[in-house]
Amino acid sequence: MPGSANLNIMMKAARKAGRSLVKDFREVENLQVSMKGAGDFVSRADLAAEEILKDELLSARPTYGWLAEEGGETHGKDPTRRWIVDPLDGTTNFLHGLPHWAVSIALEHKGQIVAGVVFDAAKDEMFYAEKGQGAWMNDNQRLRVSARSRLIESIFATGLPFGNRPDLPDILQDLGRLSPATAGVRRWGAAALDMAYVAAGRYEGYWERRLNVWDIAAGVIIVKEAGGFAEPLNPRGDLLQDGNVICANEPIFEQFAKVIRNN
Ligand code: 2AM
Ligand code: CA
Questions:
Q1: CA angle in degrees (0–180, nearest 5) for 22-201-102
Q2: Contact in structure between 128 and 141 (CB atoms under 8 Å)
Q3: Which residues line ion ligand 2, judged by CB < 5 Å?
């Protein structure tokens, strides 16, 4: 797809940050002996990737605002546009040498996401979408959500709470209702890639609670442009602010959402 100038800027920035992360990822394994060493190293890799992205995106578009996981928010001269960036989604995977993490970049205009890029640098898969232009992978592969319409033939992904976060009972109840009705539930640990995979039809749906706007901003437009639905768990909430997301292909969405929303 011939993307806009902004989309090209986003993909170039994602590739550059991705190259830096891949180099650091190769080092991580050597550092596993020292847990603290590995943790500090990954924090530095994360920050270095964010610096690359900030440099690329704000040099190309100096008037845009900036919101990112590590560096917080800055307002631009143009109050209508901002970059929403997660330099390393799936940090825990990265730290453990699991090749499942991504760079996520979204462009917001007047409160709406208008473009999104999710780059899985370890597998060299670039997922991207622009409003009204469809969703794509790598050079020219059009993304479509899957056509499966039966829960029992469908697989879903979610995120399980880590540490002692309070939402474990909710997710266990979800799993108790959903698992018996489906072909299985997966837990991969990188929200941006979970959404990209729904867009690619690799699984039928995904839900997770307590996410941040930078985890999902790019994924949401990729899912929608691939023909899928993405909504907040609370149907009256605002998807990006709510942070509790449910997305799926069109034929399965209602059945899936009914089970998750328990109504
Ligand atoms: P992150 O890697 O950018 O932090 C997985 O369930 C999602 O939760 C990921 O997108 C991940 O984004 C986020 N997350 C935040 N803190 C996490 C943690 N300590 N462990 C696992 N995932 C975390
Ligand atoms: Ca994230």
A1: 20
A2: no
A3: 86, 89, 215
Q: Which residues line ligand 1 (CB under 6 A)?
A: 69, 86, 89-92, 159, 162, 189-191, 208, 215
Atom of ligand 1 nearest to the CA of 159: 6
The domain made up of 5-142 is a member of CATH 3.40.50.11540: no
What is the location of CATH 3.40.190.80 in the chain? Answer: 151-261
* CATH 3.30.540.10 domain locations along the chain: 5-142
pTM over 0.90: yes
- Residue-wise pLDDT tens digits, 57-99: 999 999 999 999 888 899 999 999 999 999 999 999 999 999 9
Cα 187–chain centre separation: 14
Fold designation for 151-261: D-Maltodextrin-Binding Protein; domain 2 (3.40.190)
Q: Where are the beta strands (DSSP E) in 49-154?
A: 65-68, 72-74, 81-89, 102-109, 112-120, 125-130, 135-137, 141-143
HSE-up of residue 226 (Cα within 13 Å, Cβ side): 36
CA angle 61, 218, 220 (to 5 degrees): 140
Provide the token pair at 243.
């942070």
What's the pLDDT score for residue 74? Answer: 93
CA of 89 to the centre of ligand 1 (A): 7
> What is the 158 CA–ligand 2 centroid distance (Å)?
14
